[in-house]
Structures are given as structure tokens and as C-alpha cells.
Amino acid sequence: MNTILRIAVQKSGRLSESSLDLIRECGIRFSNGGGKLMSSAQNFPLEFLFLRDDDIPGYVADGVADIGIVGENELVEKEKDVSLVKRLGFSKCRLSLAIPKSENYEGLKNFESKSIATSYPNILASFLQKEGIKADIHEISGSVEIAPGIGLADAICDIVSSGSTLLTNGLKEVEVIFKSEAVLVANNTLSPEKNEILKQLLFRIDAVQAGSNNKYILLNAPNDKLDLIISLLPGMKSPTVLPLATAGWSSIHSVITEDEFWERIQKLRQAGAEGILIVPIEKMIL
Ligand code: PRT
Ligand code: ZN
Predict the structure, then answer these.
(1) Would you say the CB of residue 170 lies under 6 angstroms from ligand 1?
(2) Average pLDDT of the residues of the chain
(3) What's the pLDDT tens digit per position in 77-131?
(4) Model confidence at 235, in pLDDT bands (50, 70, 90)?
């Protein structure tokens, strides 16, 4: 029988859509409609298991799934024996300590002998231990942000993204204790056949990530400014230079990261570049 790699992805929540989009961008076709628990890819040896995110590290550790996509916060909190294969760059957030807005904050010593409500008792405990702070950890599974308001705890430790949930609950973020993003994890004892499929998948993910971080740039330049303009373009190797129909002008093609482009655009124009086009790259093989 042909080997199939089984991937666990979140059934519905903040990770689901981006996880499935990434796999689609890798050219893998599948259906995930109808609230199904499982699905198979049509053109790649991959099978999906749709789960709650809390269960993903454990299922991958036990080998029920071979790989999975989960928030790094869940991965570290669950302390399961799996390998972190790749950071995926989406669902970024932070795990932070927050206290009532009206309180003064003078540093971590504020938390000494206080009670802190959290759904991340392990990450919080190891942070407090490292910092030498003794506090009471109240583990609660949801709506952590209401704990201080109802007198359940003095402070909270919770996931923050925009910060608006803290704000609407009269809290302020005072310490970031962990930064998280979606990660790809794998079982530690994959067979060589499954490892080979994982390698192919990673090759595609790398190409998708490199493509979305980079842009194709085309511009026109007077020939006497070519050297200067080329020195402003980092490119993969050296840029392509093609003569234009207009004498004394060339077209330059290169690859540039989005950030670099915004940084260099003024210099390129000052150097005489014209007709600058920035085009998205779908996949890029490094
Ligand atoms: O049902 P299931 O158990 O699968 O899902 P879940 O409800 O446990 O998780 P889900 O879908 O909410 O989040 C999945 C993962 O997304 C988390 O483990 C994080 O890695 C990541 N993530 C990114 C977030 C956020 N951003 C986020 N903002 N997880 C939770 N939040 C919460 C936050 O705690 C706050 O209460 O969203 C609320 C809004 O945040 P603000 O700061 O933007 O107001
Ligand atoms: Zn969950």
C-alpha cells in the first residue's frame, strides 16, 4: 500500500483557514466541507484529521497524526514529545501578564503572592520560576479576561493579539512572557517513507513562503545609471538587464523583498529609475 502522511489541523478556529490556505498554496487539492473529521488530498499523499487545537500536540506525539499545525503556545504548554519542524508565520500572538488598569505597575514583583488566572499554567509556572516570583496560579479554561473583574484572581496571563479584549475588560498588558505563531510539528519516529513525503511538503512550503516574502521588480534605467541602480537591487544573483527599443535605455528585472522595496524606492527613483513595476511571485525555489 502507498504511504500516506496524516496531518492534524484545527477543525474550526483561528488557525483553520490559514493552515488550509497554506496547504492549498502548496498545490494540494482536497475537500474539507461538511464538518468532516477526515479528508484525503486528491493529488498528494496527505490525509487530514480535523481536531481541536488543544488535542493536536498529543495526537502527533502518539502517532495518531504524523504531523500537525498548531500554535506554539499550545505546543509548549502541552509539553508533548514532538519536533518543531517549521515556523509558519501566521496566527502570531503573545502570551502576556495583565493587571487591572487602575493599578500601578512597578515590575514583576507586583505579582509576588498574587493570584493569576490562566489557561497556560505550565508556561506561566516556568516563567515565574525563572524570574523567582511566587504566585498562585488559577487554571481556568476560558474567558480568563473576566477573572479580575469578578474577584477570581488579581491578574491574568492570556493570549493577546490586538489588545482590545484586555482593554474592554479594564485590564492592561504589563509583561509579554511568550511570543507565538503557528508551527508545523511532527512525530519523532516517522518512517523513512513518511519522512520523504514530509520533505516534499516542506520543499513546497519553503517555495510558497519565499514567494510571498519576495516581489519581482521590473524597471527602466538610462544606461549611464545602470551600475548605480543595480547596486541598489539586492536580487537573487545579479539582475537581468535587457536593452529597450529606445536607444540608451535598459530594462532591469530582479527579485526584492517587500520591505527592501519600500526602503529603496526613493533611492531608485533618484538614481533615474522609471516605470517601476512590482509583481507578486507565486512560488520561489531557493
Ligand atoms: O476550539 P479549539 O480548541 O480548536 O480552539 P480555541 O478556541 O482553543 O483556539 P482559537 O481558535 O481561539 O486559537 C487558536 C490559536 O490561535 C491559539 O492557540 C493561538 O496560537 C492563536 N491566536 C492568535 C490566538 C489569538 N491570536 C487571539 N487573539 N488565540 C486566541 N486569541 C484570543 C485572545 O485570548 C483574546 O481573548 O482572542 C481574543 C481576542 O484577542 P485581542 O487581543 O485581539 O482582543
Ligand atoms: Zn483550544
Answers:
(1) no
(2) 95
(3) 999 999 999 999 999 999 999 999 999 999 999 999 999 999 999 999 999 999 9
(4) low
The environment of the single-atom ion ligand 2, i.e. residues with CB closer than 5 A, is: 53-54
pLDDT (0 to 100) of residue 169: 98
Are residues 170 and 273 part of one domain? no
What's the distance, CA 195 to chain centroid?
A: 22
Same-domain pairing of 97 and 175: yes
- Among candidates 126, 162, 127, which has minimal Cα distance to 145? 162
Instruction: Please report the atom of ligand 1 found closest to the CA of residue 159.
Output: 34
5-10 and 67-71 strand pairing: parallel
Nearest to 241 by CA among 256, 221, 224: 221
Is the residue at 203 inside a domain? no
Return the pLDDT at 145: 97
Asked whether residue 199 is assigned to any structural domain, the reply reads no
159, 165, 183, best to mutate for ligand 1 pocket (most atoms within 8 Å of CB): 159
**Can you give the residue range of the structural domain that contains 51?**
5-91+182-190
The pTM score is: 0.93
Is 39 contained in some domain? yes
Measured by CA distance, the residue closest to atom 21 of ligand 1 is 91
Sheet holding 249-257, edge to edge: 240-243, 249-257, 214-222, 274-280
